[in-house]
Design goal:
homotetramer; alpha/beta; 10% strand; 46% helix; TIM Barrel; globular
């Protein structure tokens, strides 16, 4: 086990599926090995991009098992264990811990009558039973749950298990700034939302990335430049890839899976039904975009980011 | 296996939990035996009232196993298998069939970009693989998916597996009427929504009940009176229990579980967190309501409905 | 001006429209005169049932003018002034006051990022400028805004102008009870939601009705019986009309307008587009329901409630 | 009157407010004159950015009056007339036409029971009475109404008045492509969403911009380069300003109003309550961003886009 620092780059992984929608364990291994090769600090499996909500419990288990095995201590494995039931969230956490994962990522679920106290209880119960550090995921776009700064501050204060906030509530930079000022116990905050607000979040105190952008080496370079104090270079990196980041903002996970397929990391770009597949016409548009962004580059290999942006 | 007629009363069952939220198999058996004793046509497990969304796959399996065992062919067992993933819905259906269930209940899931064609595909794929008859559940309040009359008509026409519509989209009586006129292949339509619109639905062609009202014998009496042509008596039954039906409309499942506990059918009224438990004050209010509705009656035994309403 | 007590029955009025959707001032006068004749404490115009959101500002003004004129001091006129803009809410309040209204009804609006502090500010600003007492309307079903008990308690404590809570957040009886215990300054709470939970709300401390049920004299009788200490009789009244109350729960305002038309109070049951009109088949069903509820009764005259229920 | 081509750049205008939230007619004139000076094809007033939903009818009227007066035939004036009521939408359209506007922008409103046929009726009625060409705005993020490609195709086919589609349903490029293929009568489609997907939309057939990005001259340059066949240059322009485009994606209108204030076009950046003002810290972040994007440039004058990007 590798206790994560939650500072650095933690890609969110897609779950690879074969053409017939079965979990593609081989591709998952390829994907994990690639991430390990990049030297990222860790990965998160079974998040929104991982289509966890469309999988059976047994399938989730198999993904965690493979992730831990391939990670082999080289990188942290964070497991998404959000579930509409508190007890089920706890059990998924136990499963992940038993299989050797390093941390859990937990988001609340919407209830018919929204209730901030119930959300706090949810985190209280989950943290009380969590065998591992917990990432609090604040992502109203997928959960429908809006947590105020004050509510998050209390939850973090009350639960020592919470080791990180995945800051995905817009405006994210402003919320990171407000949380930084208000938290009674500092915890790292990671940038999500596909890195759309990456530069702005870093400026306000984000400690790195925890998102599914299909070129994590770009995020590594961005963060390294930022940490190294070369703000101008950092910004240049982020801006160079911003059209790609924007293209990935389109709803669903199809675009990212297609890019990962082209990178040779997935055997198929299959999205589980009823998730939307790639729109007709988008494949060709993606080809143009990739060629514009990094002409002539072999994307099946880790990018030489400096070379790509002509630095 | 008992092929259901989907005409009659099919109570939706709560899933009993112990104080510590574990599945309470003993209470489940009690509940099932009670329903069998009432002579209902069948039961549905793992619906919204069954808190299926807060359970693990293994727990779902155990509930189906017990239901089938206790039913013992005396009553049909319908299993809720809705899942955000089409493939997972199919797999839950296979599991239910393998364990001996009699039918499946399936509702669509909301996607970021609503798409009626995708919903039709969902039913198409699920039905193509379904080893059992399928109940199409039309319940926007829980799914967030609104299916037009035209869409449902096409889905029913295209999928012979669909054997019933659980008509829970308000206005339900009007939708039943519109569907009756438009369906190219007639299928029975069952009334849900806690029987709130029971009388009105029957008048427009509902073939019975598939809902969680905690006194199914009342629904049996209502339906029997209606079928027997005694509309006035039918209405009188429904109206006598309407305050209780309304009381159960309050959000969540706590009220119903508390009534079932008082009926001796559940050892505990536990709702799984983060579902809301009984509001303070509601227990006492329920006591008054039950006493008003059936003074002096032992509710742990099947009601003598005629006696209760003084017929 | 008649300062309302907010104890008693305050019908919410439909806005009458002609066949061509123009405001029907004559019918509005008929409606108001009928309410005055019933002896209700007041009326509310321009609420959800009043289709205020589909009207122009000038039309709203004309409705207030007529209401105040016909009321003539005999009954209070409460004016719905909710608006997505705080300043516009304030201006609508000034308009209502200038025309002689007696109170304002105000609900908050949903913003892209929900924010309880902003809702409190909204009430703070509106109350600071309100020339009249304010009814805080808590109706998440129409506003999408969920206010916690704590939030409402603070708003009431901070704004002396708030003179009443329209308690329409389910579970309403439980929320009335919780508010009663928590309010630092008692204010009357009125029951809405079409009287669906009327009996239960009264048991928990509701001070009366502020809703659009098309037979306000029934609510008057219910409340009078309850206040007179005859709980059994109160319950009997409510239950007798409960099927009608339930029938009116169907979405939209078409059912109520049709009943009011049959009562001779509206020249037409027109609902403004794109609001839904009466579903085909519902007119006939309503005829049966009215005949079942009060056989042979002339509904164009105030009901003799005791006679109808055979007391 | 200037019949718009709906090809080119049509900025959506913010409505200027003074510190006390009154409409600031002087700033509105400044803003309009600036746009006229840029040579844009037209402007849209009273859209989402215009905070039309927080304004009174009289205020709306005053904005249209000023817009038409300042435009003086030099540029088209499109007026947002969406309203929850069909009749009110029609009346707002008449008002706009009477005051000399050139076109109307109309989006549908969400109803409790979504109904595609009702949306079609809405456009049918509005178009039948519209004295001016109509822009169909497809923006589910603000309306909550999802229109399928088939539905839009039918609406356009049935209503000759519809002269343009404002394509703001994600994925926008894919939807533009699908509509292009399916429309039985071609109509121009304009890009909105703050130009976030601008490059991608142009590639799929967008005929220009109809959005609130605070530097419309950038969009003019982008479009001109694209039309001139210099795809690479077009892309370079868009990408250069993409960080600013992204920064403006943050919820609400505060960021844009602050930029317009800095450009000398608004006396105050006031957003009407309860809309969110600029988050603390965002002002400083914006300063950095503007300086990064166009170092040393006087933004109160029209940008020399080629110079800014170093072309």
């Amino acid at each position: 086990m590798t206790t994560p620092s939650f500072r650095g780059v933690y890609p969110i992984l897609a779950t690879p599926f074969r053409d017939d929608e079965r979990v593609d364990d081989d591709s998952l291994r390829t994907l994990l090995a690639f991430m390990a090769g990049l030297g990222v600090e860790g990965v998160t499996v079974l998040g929104v991009l991982g289509e966890a909500n469309r999988m059976s419990d047994r399938e989730r288990e198999s993904v965690v098992r493979t992730a831990v095995e391939v990670a082999g201590g080289r990188l942290s494995v964070i497991v998404g264990t959000s579930h509409p039931g508190t007890r089920a969230t706890i059990e998924l956490g136990r499963m992940a811990a038993a299989l050797g994962a390093d941390a859990l990522m937990v988001a609340p679920s919407a209830e018919p009558v929204p209730n901030e106290a119930r959300v706090a209880e949810y985190y209280g119960r989950v943290c009380a039973e969590a065998p591992l550090p917990v990432v609090l995921q604040d992502h109203p776009a997928s959960t429908g749950v809006h947590m105020s700064v004050a509510a998050i501050v209390r939850i973090v204060a009350d639960n020592a298990r919470i080791a990180c906030i995945k800051a995905e509530a817009v405006p994210s930079a402003a919320k990171i700034e407000a949380l930084s000022a208000a938290l009674t116990r500092p915890v790292p905050m990671l940038t999500g939302l596909g890195a759309l607000y990456g530069q702005f979040d870093l400026e306000k105190g984000s400690s790195g990335y925890n998102t599914g952008f299909a070129f994590p080496e770009v995020l590594q370079a961005h963060l390294a430049a930022w940490r190294g104090g070369d703000r101008r270079f950092a910004r240049r990196i982020w801006q160079h890839f911003l059209p790609l980041i924007v293209f990935e903002q389109q709803p669903g996970v199809a675009v990212r899976k297609e890019i990962l397929r082209r990178r040779g990391l997935l055997a198929a770009a299959t999205v589980r039904h009823p998730g939307a597949g790639l729109a007709p016409g988008s494949a060709q548009q993606l080809t143009t975009l990739l060629e514009d962004t990094m002409p002539g580059v072999d994307i099946t290999r880790p990018l030489d980011v400096a070379a790509v942006i002509g630095a």
